[in-house]
Design brief:
The protein is α+β, with helices and mostly antiparallel strands and 257 residues long. It has 3 domains: 64 residues, Trypsin Inhibitor V, Chain A (2-Layer Sandwich); 67 residues, Trypsin Inhibitor V, Chain A (2-Layer Sandwich), CATH 3.30.10; 65 residues, Trypsin Inhibitor V, Chain A (2-Layer Sandwich), CATH 3.30.10. The protein is 25% helix and 32% strand. It has 4 helices and 16 strands. The strands form 6 sheets. Strands 7-11-8-9 form a 4-stranded mixed β-sheet, with helices on one face. The longest helix has 37 residues.
Length: 257
């Protein structure tokens, strides 16, 4: 019995020593090795990379102890520089560990081709929404006499009519020929000579015409602001929506040319 007691005592001592060593090892692992290995408590704030050209990313991120990888996906924004960053993951402001890899999506170097939608006979407001949805830019709006007010009559690309389905670069500018709502009705051109410029403008618009260019002429014989000439002249047959240019008198010393 005495021998068994001594044996158990030695066994208990050995077990206690092993447990002590294990506790020491666990303490060293969790409090010294692991924090040093994972940079515990040390983080980097992810910067905003949007708009930065990919050639500048290496230097920009390495100075902040970060790396990057370009994703296979790409996008296209007409206003952004080619090969500049459009999106990133993680987002700006995120806290990450040192040497973390930032995934970036670049703007395509060349715009993708898209098929031109049909805008003819579409209200102008809807046509603008369609262009935006297709990634196209609304260019000049050209009003012509037509009873369809603000209805698209023609769609043009680089000055030429463009048909539905024709492939053009995304971000292209599309000009729209739009009806002014007046149609092709004929009327006699009113006489504007002798009116003041404000009165003449009201008469032009009220007659279904449009005010064109206002030209100022220096004179000391006609009251300031008086219409002294018009084009087309009064009495000729005009179409609704036609432009009317007027010449307005100003005092000889009232403007410097």
């Amino acid at each position: 019995m005495e021998g068994i007691g001594k044996g158990l005592k030695k066994l208990g001592i050995h077990v206690g020593m092993m447990l002590g060593i294990l506790m020491i090892l666990l303490f060293l692992f969790f409090n010294i090795y692991l924090p040093n290995y994972t940079n515990h408590g040390e983080t980097v704030t992810v910067p905003d990379l949007e708009g930065i050209h990919y050639s500048e990313l290496t230097g920009f991120l390495s100075s902040r102890d970060l790396r990057y990888e370009i994703t296979l996906d790409s996008g296209f924004v007409a206003d952004a520089k080619p090969l500049s960053v459009l999106k990133q993951n993680p987002k700006p402001g995120a806290k990450v560990k040192h040497d973390r890899k930032i995934y970036v999506t670049l703007n395509a170097e060349n715009p993708p081709l898209i098929k031109m939608p049909s805008l003819v006979n579409t209200p102008l407001k809807n046509a603008q929404e369609i262009l935006a949805n297709y990634g196209l830019v609304r260019g000049e709006i050209i009003y012509v006499p037509d009873i369809g007010m603000n209805v698209v009559l023609e769609q043009k690309y680089r000055g030429r009519d463009i048909r539905e389905g024709f492939e053009i670069p995304k971000g292209s500018q599309i000009d729209l020929v739009v009806g002014d709502g007046y149609g092709n009705q004929s009327l006699d051109m009113p006489n504007l000579i002798g009116m003041d410029d404000i009165e003449a403008e009201f008469l032009i618009v009220g007659s279904g015409l449009r005010l064109g260019r206002i030209n100022y002429v220096k004179t000391d014989t006609v009251p300031k602001g008086t219409v002294i000439r018009q084009l087309p002249p009064d009495g000729v047959v005009a179409k609704t929506g036609e432009l009317v240019d007027i010449w307005v008198s100003i005092l000889d010393d009232s403007i410097n040319f």
